[in-house]
Fold these 2 entries.
Entry 1:
Amino acid sequence: MDITKDLVAASATPLILSILSEGESYGYAIIKRVAELSGGKMKWTDGMLYPILHRLEKQGLIQSQTRTSETSRKRKYYYLKQDGAKAVKNYQNQWQDTYATLLKVWEDKPCLQ
Amino acid sequence: MFTVEQAVENWKNDLRQKQTLMESDIEELESHLQEEMERLTTLGLSEEESFLIGVRRIGDTTQMASEFAKVNTAAIWKNRFFWMIAGLFVSKIIFSLSSFVGKLSFLIEHYFHWFGWYGAGIFNSVLYGLSLILLAAVFYFYVTRSSFSQKMSKFNTLTTIISTWLLFEIGGLVLQMFPMVIMTKLYSPGQIGQFLWGSQSSMFAVHTVWAVLLISLFILLRPKKMQNI
């Protein structure tokens, strides 16, 4: 089953920041990476990525640089700033706590399976 | 006949019309679309098919425009403010030029003696009104061409705005004063008075027509759908 819209929206920011923590990237490649990581279960509307990237840039978590690629295409590359790396850590803790909470309930009640 | 270039251009124009995306946003999205189309064509899809799928994946333009509006608020208001200022300048120059053209009626009367001074005053209003409409139409068609937006983007520093404003203000003053100076040199206050009386008493008609035209244009050009920002 595909992941619901609400969860996609909630995980978008941590996911983007985490992908950028692997190294600089640009819009199209980020979308491809998300599809790859989620095995296609996370369906993004491609265009919606860009307003999020621009918001993160405004918040000072990431920074961008327009460069011309080897195929002479202009691309805007984004990379993580120090505050962004801190935010990734923060998100990691929160998501792990959320997951751990759910896991506890599920483990306690095996009948749910 | 479908051409990708035209289709992409139309799509970009659709985004431009939303007015909430900056030109750099559109460029970034276009680069995304091109890359996706390239990938799809190597998979064996036709150019048209890859365009349609690429656009579909990027998403609904209206929805995207409202997302971009949340990020671009300051830039959008700056953009609108500049258009407002540009509108002020343009109206200034249109009114000055029309007033200058209207005053030509004085010269015509001077050489041909067609209407008498009072009649020449009315003729002044007619010429003024006609050139007002003509100039406004010319400016309208000039502004709605897409190349104008690109020129406008250079018009964004305080210095250029102030110097343009001064230039237009002085130019307008010269255009309005010059004919009056010539008039007072050539004719008596009585004749000029008759001319001015004629023009002022008929000016209300010009202003009524002008107002009706502006209102109908406003109704005609209103957006079909409300845009939420």
Entry 2:
Amino acid sequence: MKTLLYSITVFFLMVGAAFAQTPGEEKLRQALEETMSIAANATSSAALIEKVRPLVEKNMAFNVMTRRAIGPGWRSFTPEQQTQAIKLFTELSIRRYVGRFTIGEKPSVVYRTARMLGHGSMEVPTQFVYKGNRYEVVYRLDQGEGWRIADVVVEGVSFIANYRSQLDAQYQKGGVEGVLQSLKNAVENPR
Amino acid sequence: MKKLPVISLLTATTLLIGCASTREAVRPSAPDGKAVVGDPSKTGFEEDLDDYNVRIADPIEPVNRVTFWINHQLYRYALRPISKGYEFIVPEKGRQAVYNAFENVKFPVRFANNLLQANFPRAGQELGKFLVNTTAGVAGLGRPAEHISWLADVPAADSGQTFAFWGIPNGCYLVLPILGPTTLRDGVGLAGDYLLNPITWCGFIWGGYGWFIAIPAANTMRALPAQMDVYDAATRESLDRYLAARTSYIQFRNEINARAHKNTQENQ
């Protein structure tokens, strides 16, 4: 009897916890679970990217990401150049992000308590366990984009900061055209 | 205490080179001691400008770039094929067991550095993990400690982390031949880790082909697939591999140091 009562309490607590999730967390969880299922059943990385593409396009805030990745130089971009940069950076981001998922493997993910950062920004810390190895992954979501992913920080390494160092160097060297050219090169010559 | 001369040397070198004034963190630390990306007090584009800048002094960048390029060729034409061959010949379970055993042997590195960081509970956890994995895990081939919640997920301490804990700055960025990205501080830390590794002791005590060549070679081999993965993850879809690797390395070490610091504070 006690066990039954205990189970019922635990059940309702769990249901409660599920409902207590914010829309941002819920959206992230759905997107992640879906991406991981596709990766687990994918046959090649090219196929994986094409399958996940619509999902990623729906769930990542590429406008914000591009702006932040380019940094100070963004102000010198004309609207047309901005559109072009977003298009190129989107392609690069999809390939880089999806490339982190291992084909044929489904990690288990622990979702930790989300932190509100203010100004419509939120961090959801997670832990991925791949074959007994743990990876701390923090998702940063932006409300302005409908709680889309604006940065992914894997073991302290920020997706955006990684590109910022490279794109800012390109801007210092070759200005707006330098940035666009380097993005184009990277898209055309996958690494 | 053997470390003291090494540390004075490091400090002196750092002062000489004059790159001690580096701002290390991606951003100021949050109250919980963890470096976070995103500052709630700023909005919009103002925030975009300050965030995501990873600062590290790199006064010898041209030299580093050459070493980095040579390393890249070495990975591409030698180490990656060796790594692939190893993965092809030895089944995954075997590779994992060998990997585990070498990690288990490195116990003194983690234990000593926990003590040097005055993190006694974590030193105790490391000792417990070592005993469980050495006995129940058959010489560390298995990791049964992972199933004991107290012993699972113990953050690994190293000498570079200890130096950071003592407040020694990164100094400047360095790319070492074969080993790759590090900093002046972490490079000295690598030397410390090397000296704390029982494999090194055995080499100096018994010497010979086995301890100086075969065992270190096996140690390198077992770590290669993971090392190649880390390199690929950092430089995948990059515009400039050198900068991608540098930024990733610095952020990763900042995170490790912040985590160790937080863990020590929690344990005190």
